[in-house]
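Quick one: structure tokens for this chain, please?
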Amino acid sequence: MLDTNLIKEKANNMRMAALEAIHCAGSGHPGGSLSAADIVATLYFYKMRVDVANPRWAERDRFVLSKGHACPILYAALGEKGFFPKADLRNLRKLDCHLQGHPDMKNTPGLDMSTGSLGQGVSAAVGMAYAAKLDKLAYKVYCLLGCGECQEGQVWEAAMSAGHFKLDNLVAIVDNNHLQIDGTNECVMCNGDVGLKFKANGWHVIYVDGHDIEQIAKALDDADHQGKPVAIIAETVKGKGISFMENQVDWHGKAPSEAELAKALVELGGAK
């Protein structure tokens, strides 16, 4: 059952934890972490079947963060879910910590795929979904991509494969915040309507407000009944939730100062 207030609370907690982690590390990617918070929270606290006590449960749903640089929000979700102590986030990017600058499936409980090279995560997700078919297992595979990432050719090779094999257990979600490291998508390399590209490759496409929990949850539920892979195009705001970060490309990849962190936490209703 969908508890919208609970998921909003979880997303808010995750935003605060991700920002604190990036501040402690002195580097990281806050903009794309914040834009994806509501999507990731809805996946982990509403939709996905996972077992904290058994992270490698064979029938668990899988999540692939193809935009691996946004891992602070994924780590925040895993900590909030209980896969590891939330205090671990303060050691983000430290050499002796399991929370590296990009996801490491070998060392972080609850992680299903190491990612970082943009465009490759969706190929891994296709392989997982195809493996489920071969093994006759009922798990779903969810893959979160960045909009700038959709400029990578490998994304569309993977999309073509998923459509060809009719992988109805695969859901790709595009965090469509319209910004990337060098500027707007439209200026760097215009994507056009990425939903139409997925549709041309045999996918069912759903457009949502990526900060509306009810829309996200409904899209994830509707994805279960399409008989083909599903692409959810989620319109989002980079830096969502923090007034001085929203829609600012400069916050793609830099850490907040102590003063900026304090201001951000106040805006999120945290530390005063």
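The chain has one domain: 4-267.
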